[in-house]
Amino acid sequence: MEPRRVPQNNPKIRQVGFTFNSQTQNPHSQPPLSTTISGGAVENNTSTLSPVMIPPPPFLDTSTSLPVPVPAAAAIPAARRVYDDSHSYLAASSPESTQPDLSEDWLRSSSGKYSLAFDMSGVNSPVADEQSTEGAEITVANHEKGANVSEVQVSHEDKKLSSKPSKDKLSKAERRALQEAQRAAKSNKKAAASGVAAHVTGKPTEASKQPPQKKNVPLRTSSVPVSETKGGNQPSEKDKKKDIPHPRMQYDDKSRVEKAKKRSVVKQTEVRNRVELFRHLPQYEYGNQIHDLESKIFNHDSVHPAVYKVGLQYLSGDISGSNARCIAMLCAFKEAIEDYHTPADKIITRDLTARLNSYVSFLSECRPLSISMGNAIRYLKTRITKLPSSLSESETKTAISSDINRFIHEKIVVADNVIVQQAATKVRDGDVLLTYGCSSVVEMVLVYAHEHGKKFRVVIVDSRPKFEGQGLLRRLVAKGLSCTYTHINAVSYVMHEVTRVFLGAASIFSNGIVYSRIGTACVAMVAHSFRVPVLVCCEAYKFHERVLLDSICANELGDPDVIAKVPGRKDVNYLSNWMNKENLQLLHLLYDATPSDYISLIVTDYGMIPPTSVPVIVREYGKEHLF
Amino acid sequence: MPDVQALVNDFVNKLRKRKIEGSQATARHTAEFLRSVISQQRIPYTNQAGALIDSVKAVGEQLIAANPVELAVGNVVRRVLHIIREEDLSLTTAAIGDLNISDGSDDDENDRDDRPVLSAAALAAAARKTLRPPSLHTLLEDVPNATIVPLSSSGGDSEGKCKSADKSSRIRKLKHDVIEAVNELIQDIDTCHEQIAEQAVEHIHQNEVILTLGRSRTVMEFLCAAKEKKRSFRVFVAEGAPRYQGHVLAKELVARGLQTTVITDSAVFAMISRVNMVIVGAHAIMANGGLIAPVGLNMVALAAQRHAVPFVVVAGSHKLCPLYPHNPEVLLNELKSPSDLLDFGEFSDCLDFGSGNGEPQLHVVNPTFDYVPPNLVSLFITDTGGHNPSYMYRLIADYYSADDLVLQRKSAAGN
Amino acid sequence: MWYRSPSFILDNQEQEKFLLRQQLDQQNDDVLNPPPPPSMSEISIQNPNPNISAYYQTRAAHHAVVTSDWLAQAQAAVSGGVTGEDTVEKVEEDDRVVEKGESVIEEFNSWRKQPDLAEAVAAIRALASVIRSSKATTMMELEIELKKASDSLKSWDATSISLTAACDLFMRYVTRTSALEYEDFNSARSRLMERAEKFGEISYKARRIISMLSQDFIFDGCTILVHGFSRVVLEVLKTAAQNKKSFRVFCTEGRPDRTGLRFSNEMAKLDVPVKLLIDSAVAYSMDEVDMVFVGADGVVESGGIINMMGTYQIALVAHSLNKPVYVAAESYKFARLYPLDQKDMAPALRPIDFGVPVPSKVEIEKSARDYTPPQYLTLLFTDLGVLTPSVVSDELIQLYL
Fold this sequence. Notes:
The structure holds 3 protein chains of 3 kinds.
Chain A: H1 11-17, H2 39-43, H3 87-92, H4 99-105, H5 121-129, H6 133-143, H7 147-162, H8 172-192, H9 206-209, H10 234-241, H11 254-262, H12 289-295, H13 305-316, H14 322-338, H15 348-366, H16 371-386, H17 393-424, E1 431-436, H18 440-451, E2 456-462, H19 469-479, E3 482-487, H20 491-494, E4 500-504, E5 507-508, E6 514-517, H21 520-529, E7 534-537, H22 561-564, E8 584-586, E9 591-594, E10 601-604, E11 607-609, H23 614-626
Parallel strand pairs in A: 1-2, 1-4, 2-3, 4-7, 7-10
Antiparallel strand pairs in A: 5-6, 6-9, 10-11
Chain B: H1 2-16, H2 23-40, H3 48-66, H4 71-102, H5 106-112, H6 120-131, H7 148-153, H8 155-159, H9 164-198, H10 200-203, E1 208-213, H11 217-228, E2 233-238, H12 245-255, E3 259-263, H13 268-271, E4 277-281, E5 284-285, E6 291-294, H14 297-306, E7 311-314, H15 328-331, E8 362-364, E9 369-372, E10 379-382, E11 385-387, H16 392-399
Parallel strand pairs in B: 1-2, 1-4, 2-3, 4-7, 7-10
Antiparallel strand pairs in B: 5-6, 6-9, 10-11
Chain C: H1 6-32, H2 40-43, H3 54-62, H4 68-91, H5 96-112, H6 119-132, H7 139-156, H8 161-179, H9 185-214, E1 222-227, H10 231-242, E2 247-252, H11 259-269, E3 274-277, H12 282-285, E4 291-294, E5 298-299, E6 305-308, H13 311-320, E7 325-328, E8 369-372, E9 379-382, E10 385-387, H14 390-400
Parallel strand pairs in C: 1-2, 1-4, 2-3, 4-7, 7-9
Antiparallel strand pairs in C: 5-6, 6-8, 9-10
Helix pairs in contact in C: 4-5, 5-6, 5-7, 6-7, 6-8, 6-9, 7-8, 9-10
C-alpha cells in the first residue's frame, strides 16, 4: 500500500468526482496540474494542500512547494521581448546569475539566435488596461471549447469541496476500496479514449490538453486525474504508472478528426493528394488562413492577442527552431497571465490552467507543438498546480511569471551557456567543422569558439525547401568565419576534409534517437561512414521519455506546395500542376530520426554524455519537475 | 587529312562546350564520328590495322581531352579500337586458314626461314592472346608477341603467295568489317534501354516500393516496362537538387500511370526504411565495380546498406570504363556554378572578401558526380544481363583490349 | 595444446606420456640393437631442419639479421647437402634422379641467397639448370625429370609459396610447350632454357609494371604505411620518389626480422620522410595514414594473401578505419591454395630471438606468416594489371584448366 498516506479529507468528493469518468483518465500523468479543483483548498488552510493537488514527495515540506523564491524578478519589464545576438549576452549571464539579470539577459533581440523578431509590447497595452476584461473573460471562458464543461465541473467540485471538511475521517479500508474503484473506472475509460491523444507531442498529461478538442469525452476537461486525492499517497502510485506516455492524436481516425475540426479556431483545409504512409499525421493546405486570421486578431475573445500573434507567426513560419518557438510561447503566456483576471468564484489555478489549455490548443492548430514546447507546458502546469492556494491573485500571477522566467533562464539561456563552453573545448585549431541547417546552439558554439581565437573552417550543409543554412551562412560570414556552403547531396564530397560534425536537435528520445530537422540523419550517416565524430548539442529540457524507432511514426508534414516550386529557378516548373494529377503526391517531411549509433557525443547542460545515457537524464530531470 | 581534322575540331568543340548532354547521346555521336573517320581513312597495304588504330587513337586522344569527365567518349574510342583489332584478327585467322589449306607445302619453306617461325596454328593462337589482357599462362611466352601481330596483318605480304586481287579485297574487307561492327555498336548503344528494360520483370514484383534519385532514362524505361507487365508498385522519387531532374522523372512516370511521390533529398534516410528496392542509373561504371553517379547517390547507397535494401544500378554497356578510380571525387568530377545554390545577388555582401587580407570567406561547392564504392552496390543490370560488382572486370576484358587503356602517344610513356 | 575443447588437453597429455615411454624404449633398444643403416633413398632429399622454414630464414638473412641459430643451421644445411651428395654418388650411378635432386636444391639455395633475386626466379633458374644438365632425348623424359626436380624442391621447403607457384607455373609452361608437337626436341629444349633464364628479366619487368601501375594511386601529400620488406613495394616507392611525388612513409618495426629498420634505411636514402612505428602502434597511427602498402609472399585462390606475420592485423585495423590496403605482387605468386583460416596452411616456423633468455616452459608463437582474407584488401597491383581480389581465381582457373 501507499506509504504514509495523508488522511483523506473528503472521500465523498472523490466519489462524485468519478462519475465524470473523464477524470479517471491518466493515472500516470504525474503532474495532474491543470484544473486543480482547488476551490475549496483556499478555504481549507488546515491542510495546506488542496485535496486535489499533487502533493510533493513525502519528505519535502509542503511549505516549500512554493516556487523557489524569485527575488525581485516580479518586476519584469514588459518592455522589450526581443532577443539580442550580442556576445554580451553570453558574457553577462553566467551560470550563477540569478533572476535580477534575467530581465536584461535574454530579453535581447537575436534574429539569429532564437529567431524571434517580434515585439509584444504593442499588443500588451490595449488589453491590460481594460478592467472590463474580467467580464469578457468569463464570457470567453464560456465560449471556450468545452469550457462550459470545466465550468460545470468547477461548480460541481465547488459543491463537493464545500462538503469536504466534514469527511475528514475515513477508514483505511474504505479509502482503499475507493481507490480500487477509481482505478478500475480509470482503466476502463482509458481504454475507451486511448486513441484520442492531445496534439501535444507525447505529453503524458494529455488529459489536461484534451478537453477543447475531443468531445467524446466531454467531461474530460483538463481534469483531475484520480491522483488528486487528499494527501500525498497517490503520487508514488502514479509515478509507477506514468511510464507509458499517451499516444498522440491519430489523424487517420475520421471521426476524431471531424470533431477536432469543429472546435478549431484556425480553419485548415485538408490537402487532396495525401501520402498513404502518413495518414496518421495532419496535412493541411497552407497559406490560406493568414490574412483571415490576421484581421481577426482583436476579435477573437478566447485567445489572448499575444498568443494569437505567436500562433500566426508559427503558421507563417516567421518563428522556427525549437528554442525560439518555446521562448515565444512562454513569453506570450506570461503576457496572457499578466492580463488575466480570475473570474468570480473560480479558483485561479484551475481556471488559469483551463485558459492555458485553450491557448495551447490554438497554438497547436497553427502548427503542431514541438517537444520543447510540450515539456515547457508540462512544467508550467506543474508549477501552477503546486502553487499554494493561499496566495492572492496577484501573488499567484507573479509567482507564475517568475517561474516562467526561471524556466527560460535556467533551462535555455544558462543551459546554452554551459553547452557552448563545453562544446568549444572539442574544437581544435585547424579543424573543419560541418553543420547542417541552422541550429541556434551550434551557431553559438561556433561564434564562441571563433571569438576565443580558435582557427577553424565551417562547412554549412543546406537543403530544400527551407534553405535554413543561408541565414546561418550570412551571420557567420559577417562574424568573420571562413565558410563553405553546399547542399545535402554533396555531403559525401565534402566529408573527406571534415574533422567534426556539430548538429542541433529538436529532441532526443529515451532510446538515444535524435529527432531533428530532416536531413540530419543523412549527414550523420555519411559522417559515420567516414569515421568523423558527430556531436549533438541539445539542452536537457528537450529530452523526452518517449521512444521512437523511425521517422514515420512521429513526424510533421509541411506544405507540399513548396516542393513543387523552387525559389529563384523559374525553369523548374515541371510540377506546377501537381494537384490535378491523381497519381502524384508530394511529401514534405519536417523531421527525422537519427539512430543513436551514428552519434558520438551529446553535449547537454548536464555535461557530455553518450547517447545511451539519455534515459538517465530524463529520469533525473523529470524528478525536478516535481520539486 | 584536312577534312577529318575539321570534323574533329568541330566535334571537339561540341564536347568542350558540353553541348551534347548525357552519356548515351555522347556515345552515339562519338561512335558515328569515328565511323566517318574510319571510312575516310586511307589504308596502306601493309599493316592496315595498325594504321587504322593509329588514326583512331590520334582522334580519340583529342576527343577525350576535350571532355575528360565524360567517360563515354573514351569508352567508345576504346571499343572501336578493340573492334578493329578483333576484326583484323578474325580476318587473319580466316586468311591463314585459307593459306594452310591451299599452301600445305609451305611448311618446309617456313622451316628454312631465319626467323623462329611458328606454324599457323601457333601464330593464330599467339595472336589471339594479344587481344586478351596479359594473363598468367602467357607469362612465360616469348615477349615479342608484338612482332607476331604485324606479321599477321602483313602476312599476306610476306607470304607472297596471295594474288594481288586478294590483297586489295582484304584491305577493303577490313574496313568494311570494321564499319559494320561499328554500326552494330551504334545500334547497341541505341537499343540498350530496351534490352535492360526486358529484365525489369524479373526484379520487380507486386506491391513494391521503389526509390530513385534524379532522372535516368534507363530507369524510366525499366519501370515502365514493369508497369506494362502489370506489376503494381509505387515509386518515391528524390528530387535531386540542384538540377531537380527528379521532378521531370516524376512527371513522366505519372503520365504513364505510376503512383509517384516526390520527396526532398534530405528525406531519403527517413523514407528508406519503407522502401523495397533502390534503382538508379549511373554516369559510368569503373573497372573495380565502383560507380560514378549523379551527386547524392553515395548517401542513398549508404542508407540502403544500413537498411539492407538492395541497391540496383541499371546502365548500358557503353558506360563501362576500363579505368580504375584512384581519386574519383576530384579527378572524375565536375564542379558546377554556385549560382544553383546561392543567389549571387542576395549574397553579394558576403562575397565581398572584406576581411582585409583578401582571403575569400565564402566558398560554394557544387559537384556534379559522386563516387559509390563497389561494396555498396548489390547488382548491376546491363544489356548483357545482371552482374555482381566484382564481375565487372570480366565484361571489361571482353569489350576492351589492354593496349588501349592508355590512349596517349607512345612518347609519353609512364603515365 | 589449447585447442577448442579441454578434452584435447587431456588427450595431449596422454599422448605425451606415450611418446615419452616410446623414447625410453627406443633408447633401450639402441643400446641393445644398433639400427640398420638408412637406405640411400631415405637420406636423399630431406630438409635437415623441417621445423624451421627455410624460406623465412632466407628472407631474414636478406634483411641482414643474422642470428646465431641461423648460422648454425646454414652450416648444417650446407654440410648436410655435401655429405649427402657424396654418399649418393658413391652408391649408384643409375640413381641420377637422386643426384639431380640434390643438385637442384643446392642450386636453388645458391640462387636464393642472393638478396635481390625473387624466390621464384631462383626456383626457375634451378630448374633451368636441370634442363641444361639433363640427358633426356624426348620431351616426355624431360618433363618427367623436371617434375621430379620440382617435386623435390617443393618438398624441401614446403612453406615457400612462391617457390611452389613458380615450379607449378614452369611445369605448366613446359607441358604446354611440349604439347605443340611441331617442334623438334632440341629447339624446344633450347627455348625452354632460354625462357627460364630470361625469367629473371620477366620478374624484373613485372616489378617495373607494378610500380608504374601504382603511381596513380599515390597522390601528393599522402601517408603510406608499409609492413615487411618487399622488394616490389620498395620499387614502387622508389619510382614515386623519382617522379617527384611528395609523400611520407610509416614503417612498422617488423619484429623479429626488423624489416622496418632496413626499409627505413632505404627510404632515408631516397630522401623520403619516414617514421618508424613499433608493431603495436599501428592502430594508434592509423588515422593519419592514407593507404597501406604491402607485398605478398603468395596470393591464394580466394584473393587473399599470405605475408609476413602482422599483415592481417594491419589489414583489419585499416579496414575498420576505412583505409585502402594495396598489395603489390607479381603474378607468378598466384598459388592454388585456399586457406580457410590462419591455421589452415602448412606451418612455417622460425626461431624468434627475444634478446633475453626465455625459460623453456614458456611457449613461443613461432609462426612466421599469416593469411589475410580478401575482404580486407582493396586492390592488387600485379603485372597483369590492377586487379580486385576476385580476379585472382579467374586467372588461376584459366591457367590450370
